[in-house]
Amino acid sequence: MKEVFKKTAKSCTIDVDKRKEEIMTKEIRCYGCGAVIQSADVNKIGYVPKNTKSEHILCQRCFRMKNYHELQASPLSADDFLKTLQKIADEDCLVVYMLDIFDFNGSQIAGIQRHLGNKDLLLVVNKRDVLPKSLKSGRLLMWIRRQLKEIGLKPLDIILSSTKNKIGLDDVFGAIEHYRCQRNVYVVGTTNVGKSSLINHMLQAFKEEQEKPLLITTSEFPGTTLDIIEIPLGDGSYIYDTPGIINESQVTHYVSQKDLKLILPSSEIKQRVYQLNEKQTLFVGGLARFDFVKGDKLAVMCYFSNRLELHRTKLENAKDLFNRHQTLKVEATNTDGMDSFKKYNFHLKNQRVDIVIEGLGWFSFRAVNHEISLHVPSGVGVLIRENLI
Fold first, then answer.
1. Given this model, what pLDDT does residue 4 score?
2. Residue 240 pLDDT
3. Cβ distance 7 to 13 under 8 Å?
4. Phi, psi at residue 156, to the nearest 5°?
5. 261 by DSSP, 3-state: which?
6. 125, 277, 371, 388: which has the fewest Cβ within 10 Å?
7. What is the distance between the alpha carbons of residues 376 and 343, in angstroms, rounded to a whole number?
C-alpha cells in the first residue's frame, strides 16, 4: 500500500515551521472536524478556551468526543452541509463517493448528480464486514450495479471495503491514485459512512516521518466532520474530507446517543428467521412494527443489529405491548408513542423482496399473496427493493 501513495508519506507529515507561517496568515482550523477555531462563543462550532496554545488545535467538541465520548449538538443544518458539497461542482476533480452497504439506500445522497455535476466518481461501498460471509462479493457487486442502474449512477469503479477491519483499503488507495490523474480528490457521503476513517487509515499508513499522525475525529455520532478538511497529496493536489450529508430519513436521527451503538451493527449481522402466522406482529425494539395482516404462513428473515431485540406477539396485543415499555428497550425520541408512527401498507404478490427501514435494517421474505403493514416513526424512510441476501 505504501507504494501506491509514496509521495503522500512526506506530504502528510506536518512541517512545524511552515505551519507557524500559515497560522500567521490563514485562519486556524480544528484538525479533527475542520471547523474554524474561535474563542468568542462557547456555543458555536470550533470553540476553544482563549489560553489554548498548540501547533495543532482540537476544538472543544472534538476533544470531548474523543476523550469522553460525548457529543455536542452541531448548529449546522442539512442545507449547510449540502452547500459545502456544492462547492465541488465547479472543480475538475475526482469524487470518492462512500456508501454504507448495511444502509445502502439510506446512505445515498439524493440527487448527487445534480449536486456534483458530471464528475468522475469512484464508488466505495463500506462496512462489507457486517454482511454475512456467505454472501459472495461477486454477487454483491452485481446487486449493487443493478441498484445503481435504477438511479442512473455510473461510477468509474466500485470497491467493497471495511475501514474497521481494513478490508479493501489497498484497492481503494490504488483506485484513487489511478483515477485522480494529479487532480484534487473529494471524499463525500452521508454521515457515518466511514469517510474520515478512510482518510485516517491513509494518514496512519504514510506516517514515515511523523511518529504519531494527527487523526480526524471519528465516532458513531452523525455529523462529526463540520467543514472541509484538507490533506496534501505531495504533487500540488489535495484530498479533502467533507462533512457528512445529513439524511433525515435515517432512523439514527430519531434515537438517543446511548442507543446509537445498539442499532448500528459492529460485527457480522446474524440472520434471524421467524415463522409468522396471519395476525402476528414483529417488533424491532421500540423502533418498528411489522404486522402480518393476511396470507398463508410466512417465513421472515430479519437483518438488524445483533444487539437489537426482536419480539413476536399477536397483532391484537401489539399496541398494549408497546405501551408497557418493558420488553422494547430501544425507543424513538420525540414521539408520542405508536399512535404517532407512520403506517405503510403493502400487498405483495409472487416476489422475493426486502422491506427496508433506512438506518435500521430490513425484513426479507418471499411473498405470494400477502398483506403487510409496517409502522415506523414519522419521517423515517421505508422502501421495497430487490432482495440483497
1. 44
2. 87
3. no
4. -65, -35
5. helix
6. 277
7. 7
Which stretches in the chain have pLDDT values below 50?
1, 4-25, 209-210, 213-223
Q: Quick one: pLDDT at residue 64?
A: 67
Question: Cα–Cα distance between 91 and 176 in angstroms, integer?
Answer: 17
Helix 169-180 with 195-205: angle, nearest 10 deg: 90
CB 248 within 8 A of CB 255: no
SS3 state at 259: helix
Query: So where are the chain's domains?
Result: 6-246, 257-386
- pLDDT number for residue 18: 42
**H helix runs in 158-286, sequence order:** 169-180, 195-205, 257-263
Measured CA to CA, the distance from residue 247 to residue 302 in angstroms comes to: 23
Total residues found in the chain within this entry: 389
10 Å CB burial of residue 369 (0-12, 13-18, 19+) is exposed
- Output DSSP code: residue 269: P
Report the candidate in 246, 217, 260 with the shortest Cα–Cα distance to residue 68: 217
pLDDT number for residue 327: 55
Q: What pTM, to 2 d.p., does this model score? A: 0.81
Strand partners, 289: 283, 375
CA distances to 55, 91, 122, 312 from 95, in Å: 30, 10, 6, 44
CATH pick for 6-246 out of 3.40.50.300, 3.40.190.10, 3.40.50.1820, 3.30.2310.20:
3.40.50.300
Q: What local confidence, expressed as pLDDT, does residue 339 receive?
A: 72
Query: What sections of 102-245 are H helices per DSSP?
Result: 112-116, 137-151, 169-180, 195-205
